[in-house]
Specification:
Number of helices of chain A: 24
CATH topology of chain B: Rossmann fold
Structural class of chain A: mainly alpha
Radius of gyration of chain A: 25 Å
Helix content of chain A: over 70%
Largest interface: A-B, 43 and 47 residues
Largest sheet of chain A: none
Distance between the termini of chain A: 41 Å
Distance between the termini of chain B: 33 Å
Strand content of chain A: under 5%
Number of helices of chain B: 9
CATH class of chain B: Alpha Beta
Radius of gyration of chain B: 18 Å
Strand order of the largest sheet of chain B: 6-7-8-3-9-10
CATH superfamily of chain B: P-loop containing nucleotide triphosphate hydrolases
Helix content of chain B: 25-40%
Oligomer: heterodimer
Number of domains of chain B: 1
Strand content of chain B: 15-25%
Order of helices and strands of chain A: HHHHHHHHHHHHHHHHHHHHHHHH
Order of helices and strands of chain B: EEEHEEHEHHHEHEHEEHH
Number of domains of chain A: 2
Structural class of chain B: alpha/beta
């Protein structure tokens, strides 16, 4: 009999990767959509790889060649960890086909391994995109021995293992704690956001080089400092440095043993509590003692809006991924307000910062708000429930409005509060303060309309896991990235036109955004709800 | 109440699921729609419900075209698919109230109907629980209650008896009779021929997208059973 882990892995891969859509889809529109997604992803991967090569090349050109391997490794590990924490719920735990898989005559460890390998496959892509081009740039500058190539390839394959497991342990702890609570989702969401903010805080603290520690003229000491900082963030980076730069086989062996043993221990421990965690996450407390009470009657729009709000807050993945921009923005604004402009100037060692950043801040706020584009996935998330909307006696525009309204309601308070905090922090004049409020507000509406527009054009109703819609769909990517680009472009315009009146420029850009929003809104309102065809 | 004229549905890839289908369902009818798997039953019902686009033919509900005035049609229709996937993050009562709001059912009617049907299907106690905690049968019962909420003129049911316990099945049959006596029409698909024979006043048999038999149940089956008629018709059509 074939290895059951591989059979499970192959089936899950075929089910989730969309490969079968490319091979067997008869609907030409759907097939061309799959091809478009594949091409887009390939281009993104290529650009990222080129960027990483450029980064390695840049380090080499300023004499920091020996930093490249450790840097590539640390960067990969951090990104893998960051992405895995939020994937573990949905892929490793509480996935839709859990009942079906656990009923098969397969050991729990093999189910976990197959799910873990699926995540490993995705993370291996990150490792290759970062480490391969940076490895090439290292070879260009260092002309290493032939053994480097073998070691580097082995390291690329093993690199995601430890960060993935650490992230999955954290994800497991969050899942385990929340599974004991009555309010599973709320606990998961709060713990995850706390972890995210802590994670960013630690990265920022460890990653910030205090200028007093560095003599910039002495690049050799900068290299040492960078290596030291990387080892501080991630101790295994030290082993990689030794293994690759000094051809130390013991270090390589130690790295491999630590990675593999760590992984095996993780699988063993999780497999013991696997059923308990999943049962806790997927079952609900029922009281079955409901007594009919007076019901509140509302309008169809408000009923749809309420349903949409409940949908958002009932999904851990939805809140976590789409709420991250708003939460980070709020955290940053509060931090800026508490620290005050003087302290920020002191930290950045730049004086008279208000004038420099005050015109940028509205767009930075806007770009961060655009990260919380709930409407870009809200239609796709209807999934198997789409038949309900399709058979309701309401026009499509009302349904779209309810989805946009949720996005607006989530972002509106964050936008106003952040604008208030930032204007108080930067002590700007009244006109600048006005734009500080109006510009982000215009982006709140733009983000909501843009998201639903993208989702109507590129929906995905045939998903098995919410991960496929929220994290991996084109509409999700276009919704977030598209909105962010709209926020970032004005920053570029402001930078290349430094002599123009900042308030005038901001006003013009804001009006353009409002105009685009109005046009998109009118277009959205006349599009029919997608039907089966 | 329902008029299907020359309805043809060709799926992408060229497969003809339904071919020049004609049918009329009048107020007061309990119309059984039977046929083998893949015959085109669900395709037809979905097209009437406004879920499925089609290029050829016309479907009229209460005089309104499904394609030209979909909202007018949907106001008088209630549709339940063969596997009712409901909003799992809502509680039963929240879902019913949501449907009540959308169909503009008044507060008094809403409360009375929910109380009546929830009692009949014995799920009143569970209405405060999340739908995700419901069994398949309970979801089916909830979907049925939501369908009865606005007193639909046309009830479209795809395999409505699947998953229901015997008592709930009997309750459903009684409610179907009651609705038809009040002037509604019911068009439903089923593979349970015994139920169709006893419950329906009219029967339509579809095979490979074509209507092969339609008429009053009594006239069609004469002295034999619906099962014998069904097998005979299918054999003759080979």
């Amino acid at each position: 009999m074939k290895n059951s882990t591989l059979i499970l892995l192959k089936t899950q891969f075929l089910n989730q990767s969309g490969l079968n859509d490319l091979r067997y889809e008869k609907d030409k529109k759907k097939k061309s959509r799959s091809i478009l997604l594949t091409i887009t992803m390939s281009v993104v991967v290529l650009i990222l790889a080129l960027y990483c090569f450029g980064m390695g090349y840049g380090l080499g050109s300023i004499g920091l060649v020996l930093v490249i391997p450790g840097y590539a490794f640390t960067l990969t590990s951090l990104l893998v960890m960051f992405f895995t924490i939020f994937k573990s719920s949905g892929i490793l735990f509480a996935f839709k086909d859990y009942d079906m898989l656990m009923a098969l005559p397969v050991k729990t460890t093999k189910v976990i391994t197959s799910r873990f390998l699926l995540m490993y496959g995705m993370n291996l892509l990150i490792a290759f995109v970062i480490m391969l081009p940076m490895g090439i740039s290292y070879c260009y500058w260092a002309h290493p021995q032939i053994s480097f190539y073998v070691m580097w390839l082995i390291i690329i394959f093993v690199a995601p293992l430890v960060p993935m497991t650490i992230a999955a342990v954290l994800g497991s702890i969050i899942s385990a704690i929340s599974s004991r609570s009555k309010y599973t989702n709320v606990v998961s969401i709060v713990l995850s956001f706390a972890l995210l903010i802590a994670f960013m805080g630690v990265s920022f603290n460890s990653g910030t080089l205090n200028s007093s520690e560095i003599n910039v003229d002495q690049l050799a000491s900068l290299g040492t400092m960078l290596s030291y900082k990387m080892t501080e963030i991630y101790p295994l980076a030290g082993l990689i440095d030794k293994a690759v730069c000094q051809y130390n086989m013991v270090a390589l062996l130690a790295f491999l043993v630590i990675s593999v043993v760590w992984y095996c221990v993780f699988v063993k421990i999780v497999s013991i509590k696997y059923k308990a965690i999943n049962t806790g996450l997927t079952t609900h407390q029922t009281k079955s003692n409901y007594k009919l009470q007076s019901l509140k009657v509302t309008s169809p729009f408000y009923a749809l809006f309420q349903k949409e709000m409940k949908r958002f807050f009932s999904s851990y993945l939805y809140v976590l991924n789409m709420g991250v921009g708003a939460v980070l923005l709020l955290a940053t604004s509060i931090a800026c307000f508490i620290l005050g402009i003087d302290k920020i100037e002191q930290l950045l060692e730049i004086s008279n910062i208000e004038y420099m950043v005050s015109s940028f801040v509205p767009f930075v706020i806007s770009a961060m708000l655009a990260m919380s584009c709930t409407s870009s996935v809200s239609l796709s998330l209807e999934g198997k429930n789409l038949w309900i909307l399709q058979t309701l006696p309401v026009d499509s525009a009302t349904i779209y409005r309810s989805k946009m309204a949720v996005n607006v309601c989530i972002l509106l308070p964050v936008s106003i509060l952040s604008s208030l905090l930032m204007s108080l922090c930067l002590k700007v004049d009244i006109i600048t303060a006005l734009w500080m409020f109006i510009t982000p507000l215009s982006y709140v509406f733009f983000t909501s309309v843009w998201g639903i527009f993208v989702n109507i054009k590129i929906p995905n109703f045939t998903w098995e896991s919410e991960v496929a819609v929220i994290k991996q769909s084109i509409s999700s990517m276009l919704g977030i990235i598209g909105g962010m680009i709209f926020g970032i472009i004005p920053l570029g315009i402001l930078s290349i036109l430094p002599d123009m009146d900042r308030n005038l420029l901001t006003g013009v850009i804001t009006l353009v955004v409002m105009g685009i929003t109005a046009l998109l809104y009118r277009k959205v309102c006349v599009i029919k709800l997608p039907c089966e065809s | 109440m329902l008029e299907i004229r020359n309805f043809t549905k060709v799926y992408k890839g060229g497969k003809k699921a339904v071919d020049h289908f004609n049918l009329t369902v009048s107020a007061g009818d309990i119309f059984g729609f039977i046929g083998p798997n893949g015959a085109g039953k669900t395709t037809t019902i979905k097209a009437v419900a406004g879920i499925l686009d089609f290029e050829e033919g016309e479907i009229l509900v209460d005089g309104h075209s499904v394609q030209k005035s979909p909202v007018d049609c949907k106001k008088v229709i209630a549709y339940i698919p063969d596997n009712p996937d409901l909003y799992e993050h809502l509680t039963g009562i929240q879902y019913l109230n949501f449907i009540g709001d959308i169909f503009n059912v008044g507060k008094k009617d809403r409360e009375e109907r929910i109380a009546k049907y929830a009692e009949l299907f014995e799920i009143t106690g569970a209405l405060g629980d999340l739908i995700s905690s419901y069994s398949h049968g309970m979801k089916q019962k909830l979907a049925l209650i939501s369908a009865f909420m606005h007193k639909p003129k046309l009830l479209l049911l795809d395999e409505p008896f699947v998953g229901l316990d015997p008592k709930a099945a009997l309750t459903l049959k009684n409610i179907m009779h009651e609705l038809c006596e009040e002037g509604s029409a019911i068009f439903f698909s089923t593979h349970v021929l015994d139920i169709a024979e006893k419950l329906c006043n009219k029967i339509a048999i579809i095979k490979e997208g074509k209507l092969i038999e339609v008429g009053d149940t009594e006239t069609l089956i004469k002295n034999q059973s619906l099962e014998s008629l069904f097998m005979e018709v299918l054999e003759n059509e080979k």
